[in-house]
Amino acid sequence: MQDQTLDFETSVFDKEYITLGDRREAIVRGGRHLFERLPQAFDGVRQIGVIGWGPQGSAQAQNLRDSLGNTVRVTVGLREGSSSMQEARAAGFCEQDGTLGEMYEVIAASDMVLLLIADSALATLYEQVFAALRPGTTLGLSHGFLLGHLSQIGAGFPTDVDVIAVCPKGMGASVRALYVQGADVNGAGINASFAVHQDRTGHATDRALGWSVALGAPYTFQTTLHSEYLSDLSGERAVLLAGVHGIVESLYRRYRDQGLSEHDAFRHSAESVTGPISSLISKSGLDGLYRSLDADGREVFADAYSAAYPVGLELTHEIYDEVRSGNEISGVVMAGRRLARFPMGKIDDATMWQVGQKVRADRVPSEIPLDPFTAGVFCGVMMAQVDTLIEFGHPYSEIANESVIEAVDSLNPYMHARGVAYMVDNCSTTARLGARKWAPRFDYLLTQQAYPAIDSKEPVDRTSFDAFEGHVLHDVLRVCAELRPSVDIYVG
């Protein structure tokens, strides 16, 4: 079980409490009106070094630069000769004004270092990074992977620096897109969690909150670095990525077997999940999606949910065990050593994903079906992840964001625009490895256990659905929806 005794003090931002179910959590609401407080939050920080130009590094460097203006210099640090140098220059960072440089030089010169390189690189390079940090500086992470790796090998962070985390609950492209799209809408952006792992300067909390506000987070909630990596790694291996991948592949085959054309099978599976189902959950929650169905649709939803939930619960528990045991972290580190020889292939040449390209090209949004069977399967697996994280004591804000909000407000809209296969082939290495490992498990168990239970002559056991309508998640999502920005992400 995780420790639920979380609270924080800030001298810069306005802390408030929200009630989620039977718990009270402290948060900070974001907004561009708070940018004027950022110099105070970063008091003593003359330079923030953003190390890495992956999806998070590029998005966060640009958001921070745009929010901070001339008050704090934001400098990007990359490996000597990195192919990303030109991309950073194109975004306005350059060597001549000191906003682009070699990573270790940037680390040594920065008062706050945001380490946003790939997880496998973190495992390889952390000693050199730590050696380059000056005492009294702040080390920032956007993922708890490094803590998990250090714990496994019996190492730790330097004791003379702050260690904080700000973890946006969305992919890097969403972090940048919503910030830009919401330029005229106060509070538009991606939610984030924050954690203070070490506070040696006494400024760690305000710097973490300032970082989150500067990224454009509509609201920032508290977690621990340990809790974050358990929920984040588990979530992307479950419903956020691997789960949705396995769900739609299993449904596509099922609908084809039932006689639907390739085009219609894709519309009733992947298009339905990433389109109307995700949109309804985003605005109205899982219970709102269920209530939107007619009487016959609710019966179909209930049976599909009841059959899919046990599969989701079993697999999410297994995934969680693999993450907290260190097996998933070890697997990522070992894969990092193999990838030069055995690079990951793409999945988008498979028939289903080729069909998907044609479907998206001919898409009429108003004609995408809200399939109640698809909705029930998706929500059953999603709620199973929620219940797993509740059982292991994670904060409700973290559970809602890692299981629902990140999916329907960040990841699924990208999948809707470009395809589930695109997401699986273009996300972080850690997530791509997880999707390839766990998606087949969701696919197989749904196909082998959930769907036969529905197709048998016996009534489906609805025990799991009996808890659905009164579930605490619905109240949690309603409160979170009040903090949601009015801007929906647009993916061109």
From TrEMBL:
Record-annotated KARI N-terminal Rossmann domain positions: 28-223
Domain KARI C-terminal knotted: 354-492
Pathway(s) served: Amino-acid biosynthesis; L-valine biosynthesis; L-valine from pyruvate: step 2/4; Amino-acid biosynthesis; L-isoleucine biosynthesis; L-isoleucine from 2-oxobutanoate: step 2/4
InterPro entries: 6-PGluconate_DH-like_C_sf, 6PGD_dom2, KARI, KARI_C, KARI_N, NAD(P)-bd_dom_sf
Keywords: Amino-acid biosynthesis, Branched-chain amino acid biosynthesis, Magnesium, Metal-binding, Oxidoreductase
Record-linked Pfam families: KARI_C (PF01450), KARI_N (PF07991)
Cofactor(s) required for function per UniProt: Mg(2+)
Residues that bind substrate: 428
Homology family: Belongs to the ketol-acid reductoisomerase family.
Protein name: Acetohydroxy-acid isomeroreductase
Organism: Pseudonocardia adelaidensis
Organism ancestry: Bacteria, Bacillati, Actinomycetota, Actinomycetes, Pseudonocardiales
